[in-house]
């Protein structure tokens, strides 16, 4: 037996699924493009990078633990008091804080499945019980079934919109109707990691929803459109009691100074304009890719994210390997399907080529 053989690790951890990150691109020419983690194909905007580099020079000091400058700016952007913004190392960390703040041993968390693969890990690692409600056959949230899954033990419900990895989003009306059926003591988190890629004409009005419902929390990230995945920063917009609870359970000094400063710089007007152009470019690429795939005969769920989902069922592993061999790294989800990030133009061209070759094989 090894030296740590007798250490007691909580048995619950044995049942947890592993988080499998997207494979990196390789420099041997086989996996030329990475389209497996829904990252931005663009590096951070220059002004944002410069701000982070400057902040790095002061890294002998701890960052502002309260991230006040950033929270003030985010509060202004969302029309809430800074005390209603909770920041941590990525929105996945904020989701973990939320679980720790409201879910006790044996309490239930309801979410759609498939959805973001961190949810079962966050819930299970804190002693909560996942109640996974299957998506509809068009890969959308089944809100009827989710409402029916609420019990006395339900403490948290997560709505992921647009849903990772399948792509469909919920409408403002759907969410409002759902919320009318949720008891006021149950927290509803709306995970909007991909919000900026949504068709602006139909994007869900979460600001209004948040104002109308005391149990709603919005989860946002700087990892996707803002291109700061490697810096790790995200936040919640929450009502004061819950925001305070999040700040109580979060890791002290979680978000680094360069991350806070970069996030703050991302909110500047001229940077926002550049990011809006990038979002539009990605939406245009998504349309181009989905049109080409439809031409090939593919029927994909309607995606409002920076990714598309191929519902290839048991062929998922083989399809991802097929793409891998042809230079494009995708992500397979068990026997459900394969997700491809809308990435740089050449990668998107390659995706179209590979998807066509797969159908003809
Ligand atoms: N929510 C969803 C739905 C996601 O897909 C992701 C990233 N894959 C996150 C949250 C996590 O983002 P962050 O990098 O901010 O932790």
TrEMBL record:
What keyword terms does UniProt attach to this protein? Aminotransferase, Pyridoxal phosphate, Transferase
Q: Would you say which domain of life the source belongs to?
A: Bacteria
Is Transferase among the key words of this record? Answer: yes
Q: For the region Disordered, give the residue spans.
A: 20-41
Give the EC class as a word: transferase
Q: Name one GO molecular function term.
A: histidinol-phosphate transaminase activity
Keyword Transferase on this protein?
yes
Catalytic activity, EC: 2.6.1.9
Q: Which residues form the Aminotransferase class I/classII large domain?
A: 36-332
| Record NCBIfam families | PRK03321.1
Its protein name is Histidinol-phosphate aminotransferase
Species name: Brachybacterium fresconis
Lineage per the UniProt record = Bacteria, Bacillati, Actinomycetota, Actinomycetes, Micrococcales
């Amino acid at each position: 037996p090894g030296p740590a053989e007798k250490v007691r690790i909580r048995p619950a951890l044995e049942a947890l699924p592993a988080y499998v990150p997207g494979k990196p691109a390789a420099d041997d020419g086989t996996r030329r493009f990475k389209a497996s983690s829904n990252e931005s194909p663009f590096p951070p905007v220059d002004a944002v990078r410069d701000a982070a580099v400057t902040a790095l020079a002061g890294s002998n000091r701890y960052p502002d633990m309260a991230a006040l400058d950033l929270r003030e700016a985010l509060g202004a952007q969302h029309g809430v008091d800074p005390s209603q913004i909770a920041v941590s190392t990525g929105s996945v960390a904020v989701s973990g804080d939320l679980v720790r703040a409201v879910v006790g041993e044996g309490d239930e968390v309801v979410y759609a499945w498939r959805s973001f693969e961190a949810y079962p890990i966050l819930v299970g690692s804190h002693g909560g019980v996942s109640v996974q409600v299957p998506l509809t056959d068009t890969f959308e949230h089944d809100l009827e079934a989710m409402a029916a899954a609420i019990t006395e033990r339900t403490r948290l419900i997560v709505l992921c919109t647009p849903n990772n990895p399948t792509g469909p989003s919920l409408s403002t009306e759907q969410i409002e109707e759902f919320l009318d059926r949720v008891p006021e003591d149950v927290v509803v988190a709306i995970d909007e990691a991909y919000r900026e890629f949504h068709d602006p004409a139909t994007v869900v009005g979460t600001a209004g929803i948040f104002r109308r419902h005391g149990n709603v929390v919005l989860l946002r990230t700087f990892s996707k459109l803002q291109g700061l995945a490697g810096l790790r920063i995200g936040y919640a917009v929450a009502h004061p009691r819950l925001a305070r609870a999040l700040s109580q359970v979060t890791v002290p000094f979680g978000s680094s100074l360069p991350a806070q400063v970069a996030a703050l710089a991302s909110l500047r007007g001229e940077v926002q304009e550049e990011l809006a152009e990038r979002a539009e470019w990605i939406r245009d690429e998504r349309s181009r890719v989905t049109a080409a795939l439809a031409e090939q005969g593919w029927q994909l769920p309607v995606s409002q994210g920076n990714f598309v989902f191929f519902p290839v069922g048991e062929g998922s592993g083989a399809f991802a390997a097929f793409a891998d061999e042809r230079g494009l790294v995708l992500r397979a989800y068990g026997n459900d399907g394969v997700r491809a990030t809308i990435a740089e133009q050449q990668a998107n061209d390659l995706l179209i080529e590979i998807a066509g070759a797969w159908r003809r094989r």
